[in-house]
Amino acid sequence: MNELTAKRNAVAELMRISPLADELAGLFASAGHRLYLVGGSVRDALLGRLSADLDFTTDARPEQILKIVRGWADGVWEAGIAFGTVGVTKRGSTLEITTFRADVYDRVSRNPEVTFGDSIEGDLKRRDFTVNAMAIDLSTKQFVDPHDGMDALRRKVLDTPATPEESFADDPLRMLRAARFAAQLGFEPAPRVVSAMTEMAGEIQRITAERVQTELSKLMLGRYPRRGLELMVDTGLAEHILPEVPGMRLAIDEHHQHKDVYQHSLTVLDQAIALERRDDPDAEPDLVLRLAALLHDIGKPATRRFEDGGGVSFHHHEVVGAKMARKRLRALKYPKQVIEDVGQLVFLHLRFHGYGKGEWTDSAVRRYVTDAGDLLPRLHKLVRADCTTRNKRKAAALQRTYDELEERIARIQAEEDLARVRPDLDGNEIMKILGLPPGPMVGKAWKHLKELRLDRGPLDHDEAVAELRRWAEENGL
């Protein structure tokens, strides 16, 4: 992308938002203040991808901002006012307006001593990367680019306005943001940025798990997450955030077809992403699927065994890996549902390999579907993505076999409504037939009938009653 294309993109994007921006700039000018579109909004305007969430900066202080926007905005919130930010909604857009900042960091925590500045140049110098350190004066439509952010954007390079060491000492989260921007935009960090990240990787431990998780999730949902992950691993940042991922470099894949399990896992991630839109072209990036693809083999280093004859085994690595995945995601403060879903996908990802050439009974197919539950579409994608063999004949055979399994699942689902597998008798019927009060024995009887349902398919009513009475007799009821 050349500079002329970037400026054309910016002009087109600014024209699109100009009524809103011009109105706001006019309000600030009338009050004697300047207003700038700034940071990521300018970067995205230059890339032709400006969203409805816009960032502005101004010389007006927070209380002055509030006076200016009240009566014009559809909504105003003050949650960030201690940091100089006033939030505004207007005609479907979300605007954040922040007073020029000239913060001083204590370099122990990442909490700055909030200090308001007096110039746009001073505000831009304290920003994370030069591609985010550009502004547009909305009164004059002039670019403000004191750190050559336009050139860095053209070259797709991430560099810092100050030295990387100063920038990362102020806020170590910026190291992870470098990896995130590599994943989202496909940019390459400048050599001095990589060097500083490598030397200072341990500083990320100053950042709370919640903030780390937010950046990591954005990285994983980016267009090129592999680039961000490789940067994290190569600089040592991953050792403090996802140590299990670089840990996979120690394990040679059992098929000896890949450099190591680490590279295999990155390939599975790439292939899972390619499958995300297989069934829905408009599907959003799937964080659970991507995390499961990345972490599906993290149990291999702990379960690696060298066998007689030179082979390598990883028995029960899916069980160990599921526990490890849940533990790591809990440490990163992921929501409970994400933790459970990723753990279950890791646990189930090997199940298909017992299918062989289709020897599974219908009972085994029912259990596969029931154990996966709502995760079945993701499990289909994960299992298919996990095929990374370079042997084209073997890869094609595996895909055909999984096609056959999906066809069997579809047939049995159509016949038996597997999504709602329940015993052929409900709890009330069980209590009535056996003369039981509510309690644990009713639950045990229900579970026994569900197991029969999975093994044998639907039972007619009389057969279900006979099986229930047989179970009751065996259990002394």
Helix content: 40-55%
Radius of gyration: 28 Å
Overall, the morphology is: elongated
Counted beta strands? 13
Any low-confidence stretches, pLDDT <50, length ≥5? none
* Structural class by helix and strand composition: alpha+beta
- Biggest sheet strand order reads 3-4-5-2-1-8-9
Distance between the termini: 78 Å
Average pLDDT taken over every residue: 87
CATH class of the largest domain: Mainly Alpha
CATH topology of the largest domain: Hypothetical protein af1432
The biggest sheet, with number of strands, parallel, antiparallel or mixed sense and barrel status, is: 7 strands, mixed
CATH architecture of the largest domain: Orthogonal Bundle
GO molecular function: hydrolase activity; metal ion binding; nucleotide binding; nucleotidyltransferase activity; tRNA binding
Keywords: Coiled coil, Hydrolase, Magnesium, Metal-binding, Nucleotide-binding, Nucleotidyltransferase, Transferase, tRNA processing
Protein name: Polynucleotide adenylyltransferase/metal dependent phosphohydrolase
Pfam family, one: PolyA_pol
Note the main attributes of this structure.
477 residues; alpha+beta; Beta Polymerase, domain 2; Hydrophobic Seed Protein; Hypothetical protein af1432; 4 domains; seven-stranded mixed beta sheet; two-stranded antiparallel ribbon; 23 helices; 54% helix
In short:
Pfam families: HD, PolyA_pol, PolyA_pol_RNAbd. The chain is built from 23 helices and 13 strands.
Structure, described:
It holds the Pfam family PolyA_pol_RNAbd. GO terms for molecular function: hydrolase activity; metal ion binding; nucleotide binding; nucleotidyltransferase activity; tRNA binding. Residues 261-382 form the HD domain. With 477 residues, the protein is α+β, with helices and mostly antiparallel strands. It folds into four domains: 1-155, Beta Polymerase, domain 2 (2-Layer Sandwich), CATH 3.30.460; 157-241, Hydrophobic Seed Protein; 256-416, Hypothetical protein af1432 (Orthogonal Bundle), CATH 1.10.3210; 427-475, no CATH class. Helix content is 54%, strand content 9%. The protein has 23 helices and 13 strands. The chain has helices at 3-30, 40-47, 62-69, 120-125, 149-155, 164-170, 173-185, 191-200, 209-220, 225-235, 238-241, 244-247, 261-275, 287-295, 300-303, 317-331, 336-348, 362-372, 376-385, 392-416, 427-434, 440-456, 461-474; strands at 35-38, 53-58, 75-77, 85-90, 93-99, 104-105, 112-113, 135-137, 142-144, 157-158, 188-189, 305-306, 312-313. The chain has a seven-stranded mixed beta sheet with strand order 3-4-5-2-1-8-9. A two-stranded antiparallel sheet has the order 6-7. Strands 10-11 form a two-stranded parallel ribbon.
